[in-house]
Amino acid sequence: MCPLSAQNTPVLIIGGGVAGLTAALELDRRGLPSLLVDKGPRLGGQARGFCCKALVSCARCGACRVGDLLEQVARRPGIQVLTQALPVAAQRQGPGWEVTLIPQPAPEGSAPALAPALAMERPLAQRLVVQAGAVILAVGHQVFDPARKSRLGHGRVPGVISAGQLEQALAQGGLPGQARRIAFIQCVGSRDQVLGRLYCSRVCCGFALRLARLARHLAPESAVTFFHMDVQDYGQAWRAELAEMRADLRFIRAIPGQVRRGQEGPVVAYAGEGGQPQEEEFDLVVLATGLEPPTAAPAFNEMFGLQPGPEGFLAPGAGVLVAGTAAGPRSIAESIEHAALAAAQAGLHLAAGQPAPRGEVAHA
Ligand SMILES: Cc1cc2nc3c(=O)[nH]c(=O)nc-3n(C[C@H](O)[C@H](O)[C@H](O)COP(=O)(O)OP(=O)(O)OC[C@H]3O[C@@H](n4cnc5c(N)ncnc54)[C@H](O)[C@@H]3O)c2cc1C
Ligand code: SF4
Ligand code: SF4
Q1: Which atom of ligand 2 is nearest to the CA of 63?
Q2: Ligand 3 pocket test: which of 185, 186, 209, 234 has the largest number of ligand atoms within 8 Å of its C-beta?
Q3: How confident is the model at residue 173 (pLDDT cuts 50, 70, 90)?
Q4: In principle, which of 57, 124, 227, 258 could form an S-S bond with 269, CB 3.0–4.6 Å?
């Protein structure tokens, strides 16, 4: 329980995923205390739930960087943490901001599904007003809801799941059902004119192909087909892995138009060679969903007087920095780099403005 009702901090970081954790650590390295708040009960953001995709060697998915960041943050007394804390109002105060946080209820009945609580994950108990010299918004992204592409069958056709659902199943030990004929469909919710989402989400090719390889490893008799437009290039090491994957998986350069219920499993309709319509039945169809702007983007734009950023993501403003996928699609490694830069910019903002409050706390 937290007895505070007012607090001063040089930097308020909103969002405790890899970006928020990195920003806090980078500020700490520069001698700047911070208050890191998250609306949820756990830190680590979306990547905390990702499974390890290593086979014989590391697949460089980045997921284990979350644990490293959490450990480091726990060891820094200059970083204060509050969970279940939602910012609801903000007012400009000199070069900084006064931000009001309200407590959020604990998620009902989901405790077993949550990662075990860390000692630093303490929920906000009462309304808290924070005066901060700068604010870093690290509120992450929204995962595209595949049911919005209803022609691809998610929630309607048995055997159609999202890549996130496959990850959860693999993390719990195996492929759903007796899936042996598996199709991945890429760019679901990204590069899509109908949805008005023209950008590439950057991470879903790597995510889906690593899951495909893990699925083949767990069920060597399975066959994987990968429907795609292009495959993202993640650098030299990735290109070597991709060459191996091209030898092991079937790559089809087409984005299917429809997935319908078949005799045994979902049937995928796509344009085959020469544009000929083709249909093929699978046991499992996995939709590689992309990243969308955070749902709270309009609320933050209004609260901090920000101009909407590219594609509806967040853009920085006076005394407000943005870090990680809140600013646009990024991998874990890229979010970490981006957040370190945002923290450096927050440091510059503090140095240029009034002397920053140094973390003293006023009790009610
Ligand atoms: C399907 C999928 C698969 C992916 N796979 C990979 C992969 O294999 N490798 C990889 O490198 N990247 C992957 N990514 C990208 C990865 O998830 C992001 O790079 C990473 O999560 C970004 O971290 P973040 O801290 O910016 O945001 P998030 O992880 O989204 O964290 C944001 C945090 O902010 C909190 N928050 C949100 N709103 C508020 C609010 N209003 N007030 C307070 N707190 C708030 C949330 O509770 C959350 O804890 C994948 C993404 C998706 C969608
Ligand atoms: S980077 Fe990914 S694949 Fe490699 S060890 Fe970490 S979690 Fe496993
Ligand atoms: S990363 Fe791959 S699947 Fe995702 S939007 Fe870009 S091209 Fe499509």
Answers
A1: 7
A2: 186
A3: confident
A4: 258
CA–CA dist 16, 4 (Å, integer)? 20
- The domain 145-290 having CATH identifier 3.30.70.1270: the answer here is no
Return the percentage of the chain with pLDDT > 70, whole number.
94
Q: What is the pLDDT of residue 354?
A: 53
Question: How far is Cα 99 from Cα 208, in angstroms, rounded to an integer?
Answer: 39
For 208-266, write each residue's pLDDT tens digit. Answer: 999 999 999 888 999 999 999 999 999 999 999 999 999 999 999 999 999 999 999 99
Identify the burial level of 342 via C-beta atoms within 10 angstroms of its C-beta, where 0-12 means exposed, 13-18 middle and 19 or more buried: buried
With a 6 A CB cut-off, is 291 part of the ligand 3 pocket?
Answer: no
Residue 204, ligand 3, Cβ within 6 A: yes
Residues 186 and 226: beta-carbon distance below 8 Å: yes
Cross-strand partners of 294:
none
DSSP code string of 217-269: HHSTT-EEEEE-S------HHHHHHHHHHHHHSEEE----SEEEE-SSSEEEE
Options 3.90.76.10, 1.10.10.10, 3.50.50.60, 3.40.50.1470; which CATH number does 4-141+293-363 get? 3.50.50.60
Given a contact cutoff of 8 angstroms between Cβ atoms, the answer to whether 354 and 43 are in contact is: no
